[in-house]
Every structure is written in C-alpha cells, then in structure tokens.
Amino acid sequence: MTEVAKLLLRLPKSLKKAAEEASRQEGTSTNQFITLAVAEKLAALNTAEYFAQKRSNADFESFDRIMQRDTGTPPREGDELP
Q1: CB 23 within 8 A of CB 32
Q2: For residue 28, what is the DSSP state?
Q3: Helices (H), strands (E): how many in the chain?
C-alpha cells in the first residue's frame, strides 16, 4: 500500500460543499475526490513544464526548412489544408 500522510486542509465552506456534492455525484469520497483533483493539477503543471523544456530545445529554422520542402506524398483525400 502507498504510504499516506495526513493534511489538515482549510477550505471555504462553499468550496467544501461543492467538493462534497461533486464527489457524491462521482460516487467517491470527498477525500478521494480532493486527492484526484490535486493529482490532476500536478499532472497539468508537469506537462506544461515538460513541453516548455522541449520547446527550449527546438530548432525552428530546421522545422521551417522541413515544412517547406517539396518532397513526400500529397495528403490523402480529406487531409488537405483548406
């Protein structure tokens, strides 16, 4: 089992009520709902950081050269640019 840590969390009453209602609709506990919300936020932040690192290593001049070349096959029907 994963090691668990306890956290005292202070939420505005309206946010707590909304989280309880959403968790009830999802069929989960409020604790599980909040845990998932935190995990989703961390995943989004990590994804943004990952793509920022990839972008900093990008060679846009090479990309532009590749995109401008006339080699290859034409797009399949329905895949053409408008």
Answers
A1: yes
A2: S
A3: 3, 0
Which residues are within 8 A (CB) of 30 and not within 5 positions of it... i.e. 6 or more apart?
16, 19, 20, 23
Give the max Cα distance, the chain: 62
- Could you give the CA distance from residue 58 to residue 5 in angstroms, rounded to a whole number? 40
Residues 6+ apart with CB under 8 A from 50: none
- Show the tokens assigned to 34: 């909040």
Query: Which residue ranges in the chain fall short of pLDDT 50?
Result: none
> Contact 11/19 with Cβ under 8 angstroms?
yes
How far is C-alpha 67 from the geometric centre of its chain's CA atoms? 28
CB 31 within 8 A of CB 4: no
